[in-house]
Amino acid sequence: MTRAYMDLCQKVLDEGIEKTDRTGTGTKSIFGYQMRFDLSEGFPLLTTKRVPFSLIKSELLWFIKGDTNIRYLLEHNNHIWDEWAFERYVKSESYKGPDMTDFGRRALKDVEFNTVYQKEKQQFCDRILNDEKFAEQFGDLGNVYGSQWRHWQTKKGETIDQLKDVIEMIKTNPDSRRLIVSAWNPEDVPSMALPPCHTLFQFYVANGKLSCQLYQRSGDIFLGVPFNIASYALLTHLIAHETGLEVGEFVHTLGDAHIYANHYGQVEELLAREPKEKPTLWLNPDKQSVFDFDMTDIQIEHYHPHPAIKAPIAV
User: Fold this and answer.
1) What is the spatial distance between Cα 232 and Cα 161, in angstroms, rounded to a whole number?
2) For the chain, which end, N or C, has fewer CB atoms within 10 Å of the first or last residue's CB respectively?
3) What's phi and psi for 231, nearest 5 deg?
4) Domain for residue 102, yes or no?
5) Are 90 and 116 part of one and the same domain?
6) Mind listing the pLDDT tens digit for each residue in 264-287?
7) Model pTM greater than 0.85?
8) Which residues are recorded as binding dUMP (predicted)?
């Protein structure tokens, strides 16, 4: 797994086109790239830097629950969606604190401002955790992944539970070519805090094995893609577990695969490291349904990666 990911990093550094982007940070980018991971050979969690598996678990369980409010994430000490909720809050009429315009880039360049920003964001997170009404108003990110997977709204006002339906179809009609879940709902994109980067995934059953292919329209290679690989590998394992199948491949297809300009040094540091042995995944055998799993039912074992490499997130 790690080597396939490192090949992607090297290709983008060597051949990527310099492009502007929504965040104003700048990237090197290529278009159209595919990686394949045999899940029977080990769990594809990056070893050339530590990737916090607890964050991957809690985010995926958040999606599976159909939740779109960061309160669940904060309850599990997961802060990877904080900035998008905080951005909505500081742009609202309810916010009365210091000017937070363009807080992401300003915090990187201005130490004094970063201190103020971190204090404001911490107060925001504390209120999300402790004030239910505030959490309802400012913790919700709109119709992001969980909403689309579990509560897709039709023009007739009905709801489609795509994830539940696709699991049932795998059990009853495994040769179907319609084993698809889509997060990209054009009508809802304007109301989302962040339009879905991983837009559509499809399952495939052959020889008693379940494979999954993800189409990701936009991939932040250094920060996001290692999470995405592990998250969809975990989802494949969970659904294979429920449906009585072995795991096959995870196929990761990327549209715009990019490295942010302020991550180049971190990528070079990662590429200088040697991959280590792949970890393994443990799922609680007493749990059957995907929807019954919680944090303690999912564990990564034999994971001995290189140390973490910090990098700023582009908001």
Assistant:
1) 18
2) C
3) -65, -45
4) yes
5) yes
6) 999 999 999 999 999 999 999 999
7) yes
8) 22, 177-178, 217-220, 228, 258-260
Residue 217 in tokens: 């329209």
219 labelled binding-site residue = yes
Calpha distance 38→40 (Å, rounded): 5
Q: Does 228 count as an annotated binding residue?
A: yes
Is 212 marked active-site?
Answer: no
Is 100 buried (19+), middle (13-18) or exposed (0-12) by CB count in 10 A? buried
Residue pair 250/242 in contact by the 8 Å Cβ criterion: no
Question: 73: exposed, middle or buried (C-beta count within 10 Å: 0-12, 13-18, 19+)?
Answer: buried
Q: Which of 207, 136, 197, 204 is nearest to 175 (CA)?
A: 204
Whether 315 shows a pLDDT value over 70: the answer reads no
Ligand-binding annotation for 177, yes or no, is: yes
Domain check: are 88 and 100 in the same one?
A: yes
Tell which of 90, 123, 141 closes a domain.
141
150 is known to lie in a ligand binding site: no
Burial class (CB in 10 A: 0-12, 13-18, 19+), 79: middle
Which residue spans within 120-197 are E strands per DSSP?
Answer: 152-153, 159-160, 180-182
Q: 113: domain range?
A: 69-141
Q: How far is residue 310 from each of residues 174, 184, 269, 315, measured CA to CA in Å?
A: 42, 30, 11, 16
CA distances for 305 relative to 44, 59, 237, 257, 276, angstroms: 12, 21, 21, 24, 7
**Residue 215 is assigned to a structural domain of this protein:** yes
What are 118-131's pLDDT values in tens digits? Answer: 999 999 999 999 99
Residues 127 and 160 occupy one common structural domain: no
